[in-house]
Amino acid sequence: MGLSRCLWAYDILPPAGFDRKAELLNIASKGGTFPSVAPPAKAVFKIRSPKHREVVEQSWLNIDKDENQILAEIGAKMDVFWAAPPVIRTLTALTLVQSALMYSGLLSFYWAPFMPSMIFSWPPQIYRLVTPFLLTGPQFSFVFDLYLMYRYGSAAEKSMAPGEFFIYLLFVAFIIMLTAGGYLGAPFLLSPLMMAFVYTFSQTNRGTKTRFWVVDIPVVFLPYAMLLVGMVTNGWYSVLVDITGIVAAHTYDFLTRIYPTFGGGRNFITVPGFVERYFTNHDPNSGYRGYGTASRAPRPAEQPSSASTSGSSWGSWTSSGSWNGRGAGRRLG
């Protein structure tokens, strides 16, 4: 089938500019009968000599090899996609589809902005609770925004228990809608959502460094470095909108980790059992690293493992080291 399709295509196109393989296929297709509407199920052509047969068979093998290589590359990319955490891969895919449709003109931008008056109209446009988070910037920002969303969102989801990132996403999006959308009047909310992912990533990896452009900085300063760049390129209003993402992510962090761990309070945001079971069953290898729990510091005789170097170091929140000074812990009884 691969050769027949190529023979048909090369037969109706002018030979100018063809490479060697295309010219070989043109030679093989001479004398063949090809319809003008659709490619045949099997190519029919005349073999004029043993050399001609050798050329045809070698061309067929080359085409099949190229097709298999292309299919293998597509399969490898799909494996990477399906290996990503489920929530962020779905969010990234939806953002890619909506942004591509709108920037290509196939879908109107009318459906994207956050408009509270339209949400509470009749009939209510409920989709506006979602679409403002799924539109990237134009041109180069289209790729850059998708990359930032996938990179930092994936890191945040991997650091949380199964299903927790889904609840985190709902909570953070709700706070951003109230602050950036409702109070500041921002029509598009993907930028503060990405800033929330970056803030969570920076807090999960406290004590490490990251590369920002060409400079290595402590990872906790990454959100503020991005705010500074945003102020220079887009102005104060964009900075205020992005700050709402940091506020939303910090509020979640405070209610689920800081206050319960260091303030002795209860966790006000828990993952419902059915949500946890669903994500556990559908993504058992989610790479959970215990987000929201204090990690034990190594004893003096131990060397920090690679996980503690690149992972979360919640003990650095307190300068007194009261949490870091705790022992390994043993089961009572």
From TrEMBL:
Its main location: endoplasmic reticulum. Residues 290-333 are annotated as: Disordered. One of its GO terms (cellular component) is endoplasmic reticulum membrane. It is a multi-pass membrane protein. InterPro entries: DER1, Rhomboid-like_sf. It holds the Pfam family DER1. Belongs to the derlin family. PANTHER family: DER1-LIKE PROTEIN, DERLIN. This is Derlin. It comes from Penicillium cf. viridicatum.
